[in-house]
Amino acid sequence: MPRKKETLTLSVPPGTKNKLDAIAARLGIKWGERPSPSGLVSAIADSSLYVGSYFSFSREEIEALQQAIRALIDSGQPTLAKSVVTLLLNYAHLEAPLRQELIQTASHPLDGWRIQVDQYRDRQQPFRVLYANSQGKILEFTVRYAEVQFHEKRDYLQIWCDETEDSLDLPELKHNRCLRLERIQGILEATGEWRGSFNSIPVQLRFTKEMIAAYKAKAEDTENEVIEADVQKQIPPYRRVTRQIVNPFWLIREILRYGSSCEVIHPPAIRDRLKNEIQKTLQHYL
């Protein structure tokens, strides 16, 4: 016997039915192949669909959830990351740029590359990485050493690789590259030897003014001492730090935050690169 149904007639402003169709389609509420506004109303009535105001998140809460999404992706938990993305898209009132960014995140596969990287590292097994750079070009790297490193609120994959042809880095560091985990397209086993470390170079820094006391030592620091003032030579006190670096990009970004309170003393190549970066920035304000 067919199930008896009640009839409900609604009078709505022009365009409302199209909006209801769009909501029903987005939520997967359909009659056959077509979105069903009637099914949408029924879902609201039996409380299987929540209707109410969007969650109100502060800017700090939104940033915390974004960082949680990145951390879940980087740690190899894509399913949980997608759950947080879906929660925000369905229930949070978001500005258009952030909403579009989250939609792009949700529409791409969030493979847990971190797990595979850790497995190869544990076995000291070289591997190949297929990687999409910022321009969408697919590159291939043969990795012979790798570490997951934390920079500026997220994890990155620092690698030593065979390929150096397109590297613009210093000759001593051409084999070192830093990759974003979510841009990895695939990982395959490779043959050959596993290295025990990255290439690195020492960089000497001089901290002055408030940074003499405020500087926090890094694990890569091989020298860290305060040099007292030399009154006769009119040299004020400063902190001398020598650090082994594998990637000048992150060092320069750090130094720029210190402003005039930090100076690269050696080597000249890093000093010149920092100077060029400051000069290019200055051109925007001339």
Q: Which range does the strand content fall in? A: 15-25%
Distance between the amino and carboxyl termini: 82 Å
Give a quick account of the main beta sheet: strands, pairing sense, barrel closure: 5 strands, antiparallel
Could you give the count of β-strands?
11
Backbone shape: elongated
Could you say which structural class the secondary elements and strand pairing correspond to?
alpha+beta
The proportion of residues forming helix, as a percent range, comes to 25-40%
The poorly predicted ranges are none
Average pLDDT metric: 86
Q: What's the total helix number?
A: 9
The value of Rg in angstroms is: 27 Å
Strand order of the largest sheet: 6-5-4-3-7
Order of helices and strands: HEEHHHHHEEEEEEHEEHEH
Characteristic key phrases:
11 strands; 286 residues; coiled coil; WCX_dom; plasmid; alpha+beta
Describe the structure.
This is WYL domain-containing protein. Pfam families: WCX. It comes from Lyngbya confervoides BDU141951. Residues 201-281 form the WCX domain. Helices cover 36% and strands 24% of the residues. The protein is an alpha+beta fold and 286 residues long. The strands form three sheets. Strands 6-5-4-3-7 form a five-stranded antiparallel β-sheet. Strands 9-10-8-11 form a four-stranded antiparallel β-sheet. A hairpin with a 5-residue loop joins strand 3 and strand 4. The longest helix has 16 residues, at 59-74.
